[in-house]
Amino acid sequence: MDNENINEENNIVTLKDEKGNDVRFEFLDYIQYLGENYVVLLPADEDSTEVLILKEGKQIVDGTEDVEYTTIDDEAETKEVFEIFKDKFKDEFDFEDDEDEEETEE
Q1: Distance CA 70, CA 51 (A)
Q2: Is residue 78 exposed (0-12), middle (13-18) or buried (19+ Cβ within 10 Å)?
Q3: Which residues does residue 2 pair with via DSSP β-bridges, in sequence order?
Q4: Which residues make beta-bridge pairs with 30?
């Protein structure tokens, strides 16, 4: 997803998906982990409670360096970044505990 537009006033970020469609997100946090940068986003146009974590990368287009955000293939890496986010915002958000969910499913 390419960074297209950031509305600083309400932290809305508009990114382009793989098909070129605009997708709006609320920017929640910027995290640095093991020398990489990540953004934590919440879909703005849905009633979703699940965040999206994207890894920041750079690509050269026509001699200009552009920022690109990609999904993370490594589930352990995603969990580590999410744990950092949860720790930073434990007093602001009510996070569901995966372990509690697993116990109630059994």
Answers
A1: 14
A2: middle
A3: 16, 68
A4: 39
Q: Which domain holds residue 48?
A: 2-105
The number of distinct structural domains making up the chain is: 1
Q: What is the pLDDT along the chain (106 residues), one digit of tens a residue?
A: 544 454 445 788 888 888 989 989 999 999 999 999 999 999 988 787 889 999 999 888 888 888 888 899 999 999 999 999 999 988 887 777 655 444 434 4
- The model's pTM is 0.73
Place of tokens 């007093």: 91
